Amino acid sequence: MNNTNVIQAEGLTKMFGDFTAVNAITFEVKKGEIFGFLGANGAGKTTAIKMLIGISNPTSGQAHVAGFDVSTQAEDIKKNIGYMSQKFALYDDLTVKENITFFGGIYGLTKIKIKEKTKELIEDLGLEEVANQLVGSLPLGWKQKISFSVALLHEPKIVFLDEPTGGVDPITRRQFWEMIYRAAHQGTTIFVTTHYMDEAEYCDRVSIMVNGKIEALDTPKELKKQFQVDSMNDVFLKLARG
Amino acid sequence: MKIIFYIIQKEFKQIFRNKGMLPIIFVLPLLQLVILSNAATFEVKNIKFAYIDNDRSSSSRALIEKFEASTYFNVLTNFPSEAIASSAMLKGEVDVVLEIPSHFERNLQKEKRSNLGITINAIDGAAAGVENVYVTQIIQSYNKHIKTDLMQISDTQIRPVNIDTIPLFWYNETLNYKTYMVPGILVLLVTMITLFLAGMNIVREKEIGTLEQINVTPIKKSQFIIGKLFPFWIIGMGLLTIGLLLARLIFDVPMVGSLLLMYAYTSIYILVILGMGLFISNFTDTQQQAMFIAWFFMVIFILMSGLFTPIESMPEWAQILTEFNPIKYFVEVMRMVMLKGSGLMDILPQLIKTIVYALIMNGLAVWSYKKTS
């Protein structure tokens, strides 16, 4: 396995009964890359992510994440990755600080480290005022940012973001991508799904999934060239329409 | 260990922050204890009693006076005919009708015997059974009374064979139903609250999506489960404590046996229930489903626990089923220790079965909890 590849999937497949949700996808993600994982609703993105983060067993094929096999070493993978799901998954009935403490705690961070991280995170996001407020009372954009920061708490090698900017205003989206860039800059590999094609332009490389298969995979620039269009939006439309 | 602490801390924060849930956990059960212990009694009082006195003699009047003197019977009226009495029973106006035949007194004196007619409304079979016992007791005591009367006037050669049973009620001398019911109802409360809370709690995390978030952390299954269930174990023990205090203060239920033994047994018993709750939550996707399944088992467990109906009177197959009912063991142990002062050796069979049950239930629960689907 190539050392610079932090994710390597070969013929990764997931079937639910007769339905093939993910159909033999093969790709790799390099260390430090921002990898855009695109596809229409129901194309199988979330299912693919669930296999990569070790909470869903592949039906066939294999994948290595951070050097560990998804089928046999899922728990080792989990130490090395962060995950932010489509469904907002912090505790609404805990405060910002309590959420950070809890997730830091179950990742096995020391007390001192948790304190340090909490302070850093709250300062970075400018959350001093709301640090002791229940997360449930905060606007969605803030929750998403906190969620992302929490996914980075244990300094994972790879972070999986499943539609992190869904339903968020353009300003917050921009801030969110600044955060993504900052994390990537520090060497974290970003694996992100999105429906916003302008966001796809920000990625180093992009794959487009159609009906469980990866139909295209390259840099946004090359993809536009390949499909002879001006924007990622058109690339997507051409592919998704078949 | 530290990781478990973080989960426990989080659970307690969430429990005590949930203003809607707190009274459900602590106030409602105790209210139930007070209400049910007073209401759920097998005693039948205020029995609506009527009679048809066809004899109108001093003997018949003496018999009716016996009923009037009893605290259980509420003597209503003298019906002129059986037909009227029947229609009153049909309407539910009377529970028991005593018919005294004409020549009652004459038969007693001449033939030393007479018949009485008793009609009992048996729509509620259990109550009818109790009423029958009361009626028989009163007539027996009347019997004794007239035997002595008759002896005076009759031949002294005739000696009545006097067999008397003197019932001695052990461990609950006054046959106080509260003494009997309170420990049992306390068992139900501890069981219900811990089962529902544990079952509901993990499914709730499934619903809001946080369980998935936890499944992508490297946390161990055992850490998560212990951290999740421990708070409810504490709550269960807390409920027991408050319940025992109420039993002592309000109902004056004796605590004959060892309190320590009581707590030791309960601490294992709650593990059975928590394992069950977790097991249910592993196979359900919504709180609604979990609630229904938990409720289904609760109803069976309660009705087959021997709390309301004696297990000895169940058909054999049902008696075998009750062996799998954890509530049955808890009710038995609770009553044995509290009322009888049973020691460790006396409750050993129940204790061992409960430990085995706890091991199996939690084993199943841990096995069926999957971080990876």
UniProtKB/TrEMBL annotation, chain A:
InterPro entries: AAA+_ATPase (IPR003593), ABC_transporter-like_ATP-bd (IPR003439), P-loop_NTPase (IPR027417). It is found in: Membrane. It comes from the Bacteria. Its main location: membrane. One of its GO terms (molecular function) is ATP binding. It is a multi-pass membrane protein. Coiled coil: none annotated. Residues 7-236 form the ABC transporter domain. GO terms for cellular component: membrane. It holds the Pfam family ABC_tran. This is ABC-2 type transport system ATP-binding protein.
UniProtKB/TrEMBL annotation, chain B:
It is found in: Cell membrane. The keyword NAD does not apply. Residues 135-372 form the ABC transmembrane type-2 domain. It comes from the Bacteria. It holds the Pfam family ABC2_membrane_3. It is a multi-pass membrane protein. Gene3D superfamilies: abc type-2 transporter like domain. GO terms for molecular function: ABC-type transporter activity. GO terms for cellular component: plasma membrane. Its main location: membrane. InterPro entries: ABC-2_transporter_component, ABC2_TM, ABC2_TM_bact-type. PROSITE patterns: ABC_TM2. The chain crosses the membrane at residues 21-40, 180-203, 229-251, 257-280, 292-311, 347-369. Keywords: Cell membrane, Membrane, Transmembrane, Transmembrane helix, Transport. PANTHER family: MEMBRANE COMPONENT OF ABC TRANSPORTER YHHJ-RELATED (PTHR30294), MULTIDRUG ABC TRANSPORTER PERMEASE YBHS-RELATED (PTHR30294:SF29). Belongs to the ABC-2 integral membrane protein family. This is ABC-2 type transport system permease protein.
